[in-house]
Write a structure and sequence with these properties.
This protein is α/β, with parallel strands linked by helices and 563 residues long. Helices cover 38% and strands 15% of the residues. It has 20 helices and 20 strands. The chain has helices at 4-12, 15-21, 34-41, 89-104, 137-142, 147-163, 193-209, 240-247, 249-256, 283-293, 308-314, 316-326, 339-353, 358-374, 386-390, 393-406, 442-447, 465-474, 495-503, 537-547; strands spanning 23-28, 47-51, 60-61, 68-70, 113-116, 118-120, 123-124, 167-168, 215-219, 262-265, 269-270, 274-278, 299-304, 330-333, 408-411, 423-428, 454-459, 480-484, 509-514, 529-531. An 8-stranded parallel sheet has the order 8-5-2-1-14-13-10-9. It has a 6-stranded mixed sheet with strand order 15-20-19-18-16-17. A two-stranded antiparallel sheet has the order 3-4. Helix 6 crosses helix 16, helix 11 crosses helix 12 and helix 16 (393-406) packs across helix 20.
């Protein structure tokens, strides 16, 4: 511990304050309810994981079976399926400012960190108010210029910092070598470890310049799997040499360059390093591999501890304490219910019994506070005007440029569309803030710029029986059909039905727009296929232009996998 300012703070901290400093708790929605005050004042939390785009922290339901895998219901009165109150970016920033003031009233005034997901595309906890959304990492790679990773990271960071966010759970360092991976897919830059490292370096340079705390994930690597850790326990069977030379290559390169202030653990078993426990609670992996072998001395944070893979195996509270015992510094526990007190008390039990020694506890607190200190969270930060930042012409132009450079045509029989008599756009209800900038039907809206003789049919993300019946009935009326077949983690794709639609097309022109190059969203028999790598407004604007030949797609195939 070289920082005397932080050392003196830690000397004054009680055991409860030290435990709290190692907790990232959840704040879902845009209304600060009393339990958020408790998280800050009663449990002394170090930070909050922000999810303003949802009203409730959701339970984990396996999309394959429909079975509730992990119930983390918040029983404080809210019902499902209601969006949170819509706020402008400035209004949300004011809420975060108020939470900072509450934290400053604590005896030692330790600052909160505000963490979030903003990988790109639908992985965007900050998607309201017209914020500019960039493609998923694989889309950045498809743009064909590694400098785009740097520029987009700076743009993401500027927008986020202006809103009050301080800690981003990116970049994804997984090497997506399994084409059937339902959890990582386009969240990875590539299936080539060297490419992942190259793009992640530029991304982290962009975050570092803007003082947004980066988090490499999911250590030691989740790409070689066909199982989603949100619902099941993945076992990564790659041998030690493969893991060291492939999965760990991006981590080695980023650690060497001091570009990773924090690393997030994977809720998976890696027999090459530990046959018994998942990485998140494995001392062999967190302390032996990450600390001792790779020499990482930054913050080790867990992934969400309510995910099915870890929670069902160990229990949420117990797993949180076990992860700290194994070498983690920061626990991510997003459920806003009784699990908060259970987690706090279980960690305290581990500390009081000596399973987490006081010396180790102090080191963990120091690492967390040091990252905050290095990124100016202890000082009164002057924020840019968030409305001006998200409307910055340079950021808007960059988001449009990257969208155009990332979209690609994978299969082409009839593109661009010409001599259309009548056309139907079938579009899934997507994950949007449902505002002027991004709403259901955004693709259809952009298609109307080029042809007014177009009708619209809206479906659930995964088609239900009613959707299928409506599609089959309506398709008879049209000579041209454009249908989205997007994939998102936690939802089933519509491949089989889209393939059936192509079979029944009887000479009609069918165009499929999807967001991945993988079998999870690419139907076998489609003749026209556009890959967008995002479902955000900029990418849908480009896709509409590509359909009608008004925009030339410039995306390059981003992976070794050939489809």
């Amino acid at each position: 511990m070289k920082n005397d300012f932080l050392k003196n703070i830690i000397l004054k901290m009680s055991l409860d304050q030290k435990i709290g400093a190692l907790l990232t708790l959840g704040f879902t929605g845009t209304i600060v309810r009393p339990h958020i005050h408790d998280a800050i004042l009663k449990y002394h939390c170090g930070g909050l994981r922000l999810t303003p785009i949802a009203r409730l922290f959701g339970s984990y339901v396996d999309p394959k079976t429909g079975k509730m895998v992990m119930d983390v219901t918040d029983t404080k009165g809210y019902k499902k399926d209601m969006p949170p109150p819509y706020l402008t970016v400035s209004q949300y920033a004011n809420i975060l400012d108020e939470l900072k003031i509450i934290a400053s009233s604590r005896p030692l005034g330790l600052p909160l960190h505000f963490s979030f997901d903003q990988e790109g595309g639908t992985s965007a906890d900050f998607n309201f108010g017209g914020v500019n959304i960039f493609p998923k990492p694989m889309g950045i790679r498809a743009a064909g210029d590694v400098n785009m990773a740097y520029l987009s990271a700076k743009a993401v960071a500027r927008q986020a910092k202006a809103a009050g966010f301080s800690w981003i759970h990116s970049p994804v360092l997984d090497v997506n070598t399994d084409p059937n991976n339902p959890e990582v897919y386009t969240r990875a830059y590539s299936d080539d470890a060297q490419v992942v490292a190259e793009y992640a370096i530029k991304t982290c340079e962009g975050f570092k310049e803007e003082k947004l705390i980066a988090t490499g994930k999911h250590f030691p690597g989740r790409g070689d799997s066909a199982v989603d850790a949100h619902f099941e326990m993945p076992v990564i069977k790659a041998d030690r040499d493969t893991m060291m030379n492939r999965e760990l290559l991006p981590y080695r390169e980023l650690i060497k360059r001091d570009l990773l202030p924090s690393i997030m653990t994977a809720h998976s078993i890696f027999p090459a390093f530990d046959e018994a426990d998942i990485a998140t609670v494995s001392k062999k992996i967190l302390t032996g591999l990450l600390r001792d072998t790779l020499g990482f001395d930054g913050v080790i944070t867990t992934d969400s501890m309510t995910m099915g893979g870890v929670a069902l195996r160990y229990g949420v509270a117990n797993a949180c304490a076990m992860s700290l015992e194994a070498g983690a510094d920061l626990v991510l526990m997003k459920a806003e219910n009784n699990l908060v007190s259970e987690t706090f008390n279980k960690i305290k039990e581990f500390a009081e019994s000596g399973r987490i020694r006081e010396e180790e506890l102090d080191k963990k607190v120091y690492r967390v506070l040091k990252v905050k200190y290095d990124n100016d969270l202890f000082t009164q930060q002057k924020r840019e005007d968030p409305e001006k930042v998200i409307r910055d012409p340079q950021i808007i132009a960059l988001s449009k440029d990257i969208a155009k450079k990332s979209v690609l045509i994978y299969k082409n029989k009839d593109l661009p569309l010409k001599n259309i008599k009548n056309m139907l756009v079938i579009e899934q209800i997507n994950k949007t803030p449902n505002n002027y900038y991004w709403h259901p039907g955004i693709l259809y809206k952009n298609c109307l710029k080029y042809n007014k003789n177009i009708d619209y049919l809206e479906t659930e993300y995964t088609f239900d029986d009613s959707d299928k019946e409506r599609i089959l009935q309506n398709m008879k009326k049209y000579d041209t059909i454009v249908i989205t077949n997007f994939y998102i983690r936690g939802k089933l794709a519509n491949n089989e039905f889209v393939e059936l639609l192509a079979e029944k097309s009887q000479g009609k022109t069918i165009v499929v727009i999807t967001n991945t190059p993988y079998p999870i969203s690419v139907p076998n028999n489609c003749s026209n296929l556009i890959i967008s790598f995002a479902t955000s407004p900029q990418s849908m604007e480009v896709c509409a232009g590509v359909l009608f030949g008004e925009i030339e797609p410039q995306g390059k195939w981003p992976i070794l996998y050939k489809g």
